[in-house]
Amino acid sequence: MGRKHSCKFPLEGCNQCAGRLFSKFKVGDGCWEWTDHTQHGYGRMWINKKTIHAHRLVWQWSRGKIPNGLCLDHLCRNRKCVNPRHLELVTLGENVLRGESVPAKNARMKTCKLGHQLTQLKLQRSCLVCRAKWDEKNAARKQKYQHERYISNRAERLSRQKAYYRRHRARIAKYNKAYRLRCANK
User: Which among 79, 94, 109 is the end of a domain?
Assistant: First the structure.
């Protein structure tokens, strides 16, 4: 049996790993499409019992180590692309905002659904016109709810008192009689 291959660092002076890497994508005029295993659209390769993104391996081979705190952004928006000319080192926050996720789309919005200008308020952006309408509508609804709740609570309280008096009429009458006698004797 042959000896298992292992590198101290992926592709650093290792012709065997570099040969495996270059056999797994097609070089073209634009994107270099990864043809081997993918996960969530990104090319993957096993090296030293670890799965590593293919575009990161090609970047490390062609341009060197990726600094801490930075990640690679696909400028071509093709996740299978491993062309280092289509990759750029950016922070994670910038990479997320460049994408097509919901937070990225919301960050690019300039107006609300009704066309009003969005305004930055502390940590969130909101439409002041729509917010004022919502507050007004919500205040009226809250006031109506509190009034209905007060009326229903009052009616409920009265019905409970009446039921209590009906159940305990004899005991209450006896207590009231004893109280009157005590007051009369003083």
Answer: 94
Are residue 24 and residue 80 in the same domain, yes or no?
A: yes
2, with CB counted inside 10 A (0-12, 13-18, 19+), is exposed
Say how many CA atoms lie within 13 Å of 176 toward its Cβ.
7
Distance CA 126, CA 101 (A): 19
DSSP 29-48: SS--EE-S-EETTEEEEEET
Based on its alpha-carbon atoms, the radius of gyration of the chain, rounded to whole angstroms, reads 36
Which pairing describes strands 50-53 and 70-74: parallel, antiparallel, or unpaired?
Answer: unpaired
Q: Tell me the pTM.
A: 0.59
Number of domains in the chain: 2
Q: How many CA atoms, within 13 angstroms, populate the side-chain half-sphere of residue 126? A: 12
Q: How far apart (Å, rounded) are the C-alpha atoms in residues 18 and 105?
A: 38
Domain enclosing residue 151, as ranges: 130-185
pLDDT tens digits, one per residue of 15-43: 777 788 888 888 888 899 999 988 999 99
CB 72 within 8 A of CB 55: yes
